[in-house]
Amino acid sequence: MDILQRLGIPLAIAAAALSTILAVIATMGWFSRKNHMPVEGRTVLITGASEGMGRSAAIQLAAKGANLILVSRNVGRLEEALASVKAAAKSPSTQRFTYISADVAEPDYAGRVIAEAVAWNGGQPPDIVWCVAGMSTPMLWADEGSMAAARRNMDVNYFGSAEMSRAILREWLNPENNNSNNTTKKNAEPKHIIFTASVLALFAIVGYGPYTPSKWALRGLADTLAMELNLYPDTPVKVHVVYPATITSPGLERENQTKPEITLQLEKDEPPETPDTVARRAIEGLERGEHFVTVSFLGNLMRCGVLGGSLRNNWVLDTLLGWIVPIIYFFVIRIMNAQVLGWARKHGHLAKNQSNTGHFIFLLAGSSMKSSAVRSQRGRPSKVTKPAAPTRGRPARQAAAQLAAHDAHEAHALAEGLKNEPATAASVFDDVGMGAEEYAAAAAAAAAMDTDLTEDAHGEAEPETGMDGQDPTGATSGLPPHVDLTAANILANGGASNPGNALSQPVPDQLQDMQQSLAHAHQHQHQHQHQQQHQHQHHHQHQHQHQPPAQMGPPQQLQQGHQPIDSSMMKTTEELAIESGYGELNIESALAKRLAREPGQRLAQQRRPEQVLNLARRSNVEALFAHIAGEPARVPCKNCHKGHGPWTSCIVVDGQMCGSCANCWFNASGARCSFHETRNPQAVPQHPSIMPASTAGLAADPSYRFQAAHPLLQPHGAAAMGTVGHGGTMLTNNPLFQQMLTRAMGEVRAADKVTRQLIMIDITAKQLALQIAEYEEMVGGNQEQPPSGPVPGQQGMGDEAGP
Ligand SMILES: NC(=O)C1=CN([C@@H]2O[C@H](COP(=O)(O)OP(=O)(O)OC[C@H]3O[C@@H](n4cnc5c(N)ncnc54)[C@H](OP(=O)(O)O)[C@@H]3O)[C@@H](O)[C@H]2O)C=CC1
Ligand SMILES: CCCCCCCCCCCCCCCC(=O)[C@@H](N)CO
């Protein structure tokens, strides 16, 4: 100890001098310049590859000659990304590309994804797996819903990557695979598992409570694996963590909708970079063989500031920098905390003024007009607890729609909050075997729309004070139970007033419940894939469920979908257009005039809420009204499927707009719509794309519902009804069949275990129904029965199964 103390200073000086020399050498690039992660001819699997940095990385790796497997949820976006990746290929003739749709938040998703990847890759696992899929819901920790958001962030960011790394390691480390590989040269080359964290996992700032820990957790896992993988010297695997700072991605736009102002202010210190830049720097770091890869100067300092027991990229440099960073932090930490304190002084005690964050949980829970109001005047959080009225309902809708209905996935975050409410409708759901989460998510979306509608109806934001014993400032925690319960209850019971009585329900009711559960389970899934074709159909339904409680009917009404129970409450198309945020409309054309008076079916929901539509054009007003008054297409037209057109669903009005859908009618004559008459010359009694009138979840889903007028029969013309299998046309060549199958595959792949069970139950019930129908026809004569299929016009499984 003595000696050490005496030698301390000279030793330190000597070490510093030596280190400096070595550092100079290192920076001059005297050490190896080997590419530690060659990708040419290798197969790389990237999650979160359809947008943002993951997509950029995929494109750049394709340009370096890699084969790629893109993974994310939304098939439409995956297809677009795949096209860009293909276009970037170094040698298009030899490289191969594909995508797999999966939700990384689903438990056990990764085994399935890896199995599919291996099958596609000629029996070989991918050589490199890069987990990029992630999300972020910044909010203050004391805020309503931050706990639910934290769980959701953990599920996607941490468990999504953790499961993937485990699945691929089990594949790589599997002795059977290794034996067969040992002869190949590439086996000696390390495999790579790459996690994507954030600089926030190196230096945390206010407002990212739900997010940052999920990224810190990745660091913990990566370091653990880096050591653990030494257990398998025959199968070298390198573990990396990429730490981007702000990326100007679609994800950033989403997260900025809920980001507290103070957070925005603090993170300005690290300038944002484009997805391309971040991906390029990340790949450079990986090629240098770095364990922790940072992509900016500050990021690198932050990395060196927290190295602890983690692997170093360059022992000399990292150590030297590690000595310097505390000196920087001496100032940085002070300055940052002072900034936060200054904010608090200026804006008042935050916990008493939740509106500062304007986060979406308030919007969704319907408890706070305050937050939406503040959000509408971004950057001007009010010091008082009663903020000014919002300019209109639109900002609230934008945030709510974007966060809940449009990308309703994130509403899932609320599930936890709702689930934790005592005496919620969760017990009802459990009774039918559904996770309360699924419902809660849908309920949250519904509640969001409630807020919206209520707000619009009032025409101004009325701060709701004293609601359910809530502090008028909104400071008390706990979601306002009445809103959630109403919404959840509507979904569970179609508005019946007594939640939690499912156990005492007679059997048929339970069946009905179950059928609805199925519908919701599917809805929930579909929310994950908002641009996928089938989702469009379900939108139709959502929007009904988004109506305020007063408009909700008992189960039958809900199932019929189109008829709100009280017709006096029914709104005209024009009224709904105004509610949707389109004021001052010039109603000129005959079609617009006619549609304006018709009962509206839905609110118009824009794909890009911030977009301002040109409604000076006559035909655009027609398109808007048609979108509100029309019927959802059974399968969206090609343009809608690709995500074109202003609104989120594909709607047609029978006999109008030359058959085109409302989206294609907008700003165009609809000529490019795949429904346009020029493309569909054969006259059909009903518009070929209109959904059957009874639309409720699965019951509306053609792939689950082979009715007498099944779509598969239609291309053959009415006369050919009942001739499937006899008509000489190969069913497998039928595009509708192919679409159906693809869709069914998509749904089943995306389904979790519970949903899969429910799908099975549904199918089994239909089989039984078919069998019964056939039996009855055989025994009792079949005069009344249609030529094929079970009872027509069924309302759902319960009815179908009944005699
Ligand atoms: N943007 C930023 O400022 C920063 C981002 N990061 C991290 O970098 C990574 C990339 O971010 P960014 O470029 O913004 O990405 P984006 O948010 O723009 O894109 C996210 C990608 O992940 C997919 N994805 C999201 N959730 C899931 C899910 N549950 N299952 C499967 N796929 C999913 C999305 O596709 P789909 O929706 O179709 O599933 C999309 O392809 C993320 O891990 C993020 O946390 C780190 C630092 C800063
Ligand atoms: C010695 C070191 C000096 C430290 C300076 C500190 C500067 C702080 C900048 C914080 C940047 C936060 C980016 C968030 C990125 C992200 O992950 C989110 N966008 C989530 O998606």
Descriptors for this entry?
binds NADPH dihydro-nicotinamide-adenine-dinucleotide phosphate, 30 helices, binds 3-Dehydrosphinganine, Rossmann fold, EC 1.1.1.102, disordered C terminus, membrane, 803 residues, 5 domains, single chain, transmembrane helix, mainly alpha, globular
How would you characterize the overall build of this protein?
The chain is mainly alpha-helical. The protein has 5 domains: about 1-30; about 45-325, Rossmann fold, CATH 3.40.50.720; about 355-530, no CATH class; about 560-700, no CATH class; about 715-803, no CATH class. About 50% of the residues lie in helices and about 5% in strands. It has helices at about 1-25, 50-65, 75-85, 110-120, 145-175, 175-180, 210-230, 250-255, 260-265, 275-285, 295-305, 315-345, 360-365, 370-375, 395-405, 415-420, 425-430, 435-460, 480-495, 505-525, 535-545, 555-560, 575-580, 590-595, 620-630, 640, 660-665, 735-750, 755-780, 795-800; strands at about 45, 65-70, 95-100, 130, 190-195, 235-245, 290-295, 630, 650. The strands form 2 sheets. Strands 3-2-1-4-5-6-7 form a 7-stranded parallel β-sheet, sandwiched between helices. A two-stranded antiparallel sheet has the order 8-9. α7 (about 210-230) links the parallel β5 (about 190-195) and β6. The N and C termini lie far apart (about 90 Å). The protein binds NADPH dihydro-nicotinamide-adenine-dinucleotide phosphate and 3-Dehydrosphinganine. The site of NADPH dihydro-nicotinamide-adenine-dinucleotide phosphate (NDP) has 32 residues, from α2, α5 and α8. Its main location: endoplasmic reticulum.
